[in-house]
């Protein structure tokens, strides 16, 4: 029994020793985050290659690190993809995490920022970023498979440009057609008003004869509109060249003229 208890305690001690050797305490852990190539200026929405060094650390789960892709980092960056997780060549207790990141928000004035990872609060210092420049871009980012990231503002800008390129010729064509149709409609309206006025104003055989002289124009305009213009024109032609025309005939023709005018107003 004593042998079993002794073995049990040894295993417990070995377990805690292993844990302590694999992970340093939260108070010891530190991180340094920097662009792989130093930048003098960086705009919001810009994609860059970055490196996070964590130390002191004996071991690091690569699977847990790769699972961070697409997530927020320090509230200022977006992790697009992790390209490598490896032990530092210069310090065996340091790990380097490299990947592509999106700068999405100006950092707060603090020089050290806290990264919550697997229940640990790791202080992370930003190094080599130079000036971080804000823009009017939206703070939402769209991440696509394949390691590419775009700010929603440029994406909307490109979509608007594409729509403008496609829509401008269509808009010009539609505008021309609308203008053409409006012009034709105006012409028809003016022609209709002219005919009605001429029919209602004809009170003599000479004025009625002038209507007959425009016979083709009247027939063309009123074709298919249900206006009985031909009997009226034939009646004018029957009397217009006679030397003596009674007032009764002229009155009959003016009545017919007003009737045609009413038909044009209601139907043409």
User: Would you report the number of β strands?
Assistant: 11
N-to-C span: 116 Å
Strand order of the largest sheet: 4-5-6-3-1-8-7
Unreliable residue runs: 7-24, 135-139, 144-150
Examine the secondary-structure arrangement and name the CATH architecture of the largest domain.
Answer: Sandwich
Q: How many structural domains does the protein architecture include?
A: 2
- Could you describe the largest sheet, including whether it forms a barrel? 7 strands, mixed
Beta-strand residue percentage:
15-25%
Outline type:
rod-shaped
DSSP helix fraction: 40-55%
Radius of gyration: 45 Å
Overall mean pLDDT: 77
Order of helices and strands: HEEEHEEEEEEEEHHHHH
Structural category is: alpha+beta
- What is the CATH C level class of the largest domain, in words? Mainly Beta
Number of helices: 7
Q: Using the coordinates shown, work out and report the CATH topology of the largest domain.
A: Immunoglobulin-like
Feature tags:
single chain; 268 residues; alpha+beta; Immunoglobulin-like; two-stranded parallel ribbon; 11 strands
Question: What would your notes on this structure say?
Answer:
- This protein is an alpha+beta fold.
- It has two domains: about 25-135, Immunoglobulin-like, CATH 2.60.40; about 185-265, no CATH class.
- About 45% of the residues lie in helices and about 25% in strands.
- The chain contains seven helices and eleven strands.
- The protein has a seven-stranded mixed beta sheet.
- A hairpin with a 3-residue loop joins β10 (about 140-145) and β11.
- α6 (about 230-240) packs antiparallel against α7 (about 245-265).
- The longest helix has about 50 residues, at about 150-200.
- Residues about 5-25, about 135-140 and about 145-150 have low confidence and may be disordered.
